[in-house]
Design goal:
The longest helix has 26 residues. This protein starts with a strand and ends in a 12-residue tail after the last helix. It is built from one helix and three strands, in the order E-E-E-H. Strand 2 and strand 3 form a beta hairpin. By secondary structure, the protein is an alpha+beta fold. The protein has a three-stranded antiparallel sheet with strand order 1-2-3, covered by helices on one side.
Length: 66
């Protein structure tokens, strides 16, 4: 997990795989970590459900360029 801060906003990012990351934000480091701790298990569980249902991991999102 990485934590970033800029202009009074903080972000926590956990990479789960290629092109797959969980990002939370908040006004303080403690708030970001609290939210991240609450949301990370749900995010991991939902990915496991998708994998079980479809029989394979979901494809990473492809970044579009204009």
């Amino acid at each position: 997990m990485e934590v970033y801060g800029s202009a009074g906003r903080f972000f926590a990012k956990t990479c789960l795989g290629e092109g797959d990351a969980i990002i939370t934000d908040g006004p303080s480091v403690s708030e970001v970590l609290r939210k991240h701790e609450e949301q990370l298990p749900l995010a991991v569980s939902s990915r496991e459900i998708v994998q079980i249902y479809f029989g394979h991991p979901r494809r990473p999102k492809i970044r579009r360029t204009t």
